[in-house]
TrEMBL record:
Source lineage: Bacteria, Pseudomonadati, Bacteroidota, Flavobacteriia, Flavobacteriales
HAMAP family in the record: Phosphofructokinase_I_B1
Binding site for ATP: 13, 74-75, 104-107
Official protein name in the record: ATP-dependent 6-phosphofructokinase
Swiss-Prot/TrEMBL keywords: Allosteric enzyme, ATP-binding, Cytoplasm, Glycolysis, Kinase, Magnesium, Metal-binding, Nucleotide-binding, Transferase
Length: 326
């Protein structure tokens, strides 16, 4: 089937670099002389027919912007057959032949279901700060989030060292510790608590004792939000103050600020490359694939694998972190 019109939308949690990817998809369509239409609010907008034709100029001045100009939404209707039927009817009415979805594994699962039911060509671009998608070394937004987190922890370090305090800093990562581990090494954290490896409360106390004994006056412990130690950061503060009264403990939960802000150069470049690859792949007749990057080369992974697979934590980086905290 000849593809004459491609739709692009963002879905699930926003991430820096999504706008750069939208821009790339729209401009690649213009370059290839294929019509392009944007869908607002993800699958919700698809069901409601919230479409807008896009040309090369529609995406001026967005490469540097965080968030997503197309908005994002969580849409329960799309989880139902009836909802997906409505979405299909809207796409057909608009004359859309294929779509590029920028989002996480939930959004990809929806795209795959839609393809199974309607044989509709779909390509995914991974956009999430968590970097938890199989089939790519980097998701859009991860690098930016790391830079944001490191910048903030640098500031926390100033006050931690001025008061000889211990800080528990909670970072995002619903199920994975990639942000915690990378930002932890980059910011020189004393300990890094991630879901992939449960340090245990005893070892945490031992580590903090050792740190004090080695002459350190302040410490930063990074905790991924999905960590499995069994206590949240506030409970950890109480626990450590009770068992190690030498420590004056404070807590900082970084929250959604990690998801915002201008994308880093790396994320802008990656988004631009992925957008081109996504449109080219559709025009070559490909479907059900996610664009990823590995060894700085773009690769395509079946969406079915991207959804099922799990990312692995970087063991070498964990070792580096251990050595740095000697
Ligand atoms: P992310 O894409 O960041 O993982 P979500 O998990 O919230 O975000 O998924 C985004 C949207 O994708 C959901 O609101 C829903 O519309 C759609 N979606 C997710 N899972 C499914 C599913 N199993 N079937 C159909 N649609 C789904
Ligand atoms: O998936 C990205 C992420 O930022 C997670 O780290 C976090 O748990 C989640 O989104 C929060 O999502 P929301 O507040 O949008 O529900």
């Amino acid at each position: 089937m000849e593809i004459k019109k491609i739709a692009v939308f963002t879905s699930g949690g926003d991430s820096p670099g999504m706008n750069a990817a939208i821009r790339s998809v729209v401009r690649t369509c213009a370059y290839m002389k294929v019509d392009c239409v944007a869908i607002y609010r993800g699958y919700q907008g698809m069901i409601e027919g919230d479409f807008k034709p896009m040309d090369a100029r529609s995406v001026n001045n967005i490469i540097n912007k965080g968030g997503t100009i197309l908005k994002s939404a969580r849409c329960d209707d799309f989880r139902t057959k009836e909802g997906r039927k409505k979405a299909y009817d809207q796409l057909k009415k608009e004359g859309v032949d294929a779509f590029v979805v920028i989002g996480g594994d939930g959004s990809f699962t929806g795209a795959l279901k839609f393809n199974e039911e309607y044989d509709f060509p779909v390509i995914g671009i991974p956009g999430t700060i968590d970097n938890d998608i199989f089939g790519t070394t980097f998701t859009l937004g991860f690098d930016t989030a790391l830079n944001t987190v490191v910048e903030v922890i640098d500031k926390i370090r100033d006050t931690a060292s001025s008061h000889n305090r211990l800080f528990f800093v909670e970072v995002m990562g619903r199920d994975v510790g990639h942000i915690a581990l990378n930002a932890g090494v980059g910011a020189g954290a004393e300990e890094i608590l991630i879901p992939e490896e449960n340090l245990g409360l005893e070892r945490l106390l031992e580590s903090l004792k050792r740190s004090k004994a080695s002459g350190k006056s302040s410490s930063i412990v990074i905790v991924a939000e999905g960590d499995k130690i069994g206590k949240n950061v506030f409970e950890l503060k109480e626990y450590v103050e009770e068992h190690l009264p030498i420590y004056d403990v404070r807590v900082s939960v970084l929250g959604h600020m990690q998801r915002g802000g201008a994308p880093s150069c790396y994320d802008r470049v990656l988004a631009s490359r992925m957008g081109v690859k996504a449109v080219e792949s559709l025009l070559e007749g490909k479907s059900n694939l996610m664009v990823g990057v590995q060894d700085n080369k773009l690769i395509l992974t079946p969406i079915s694998k991207a959804i099922k697979g799990h990312t692995k934590i970087d063991k070498e980086l964990m070792r580096v972190s251990d050595i740095m905290t000697v």
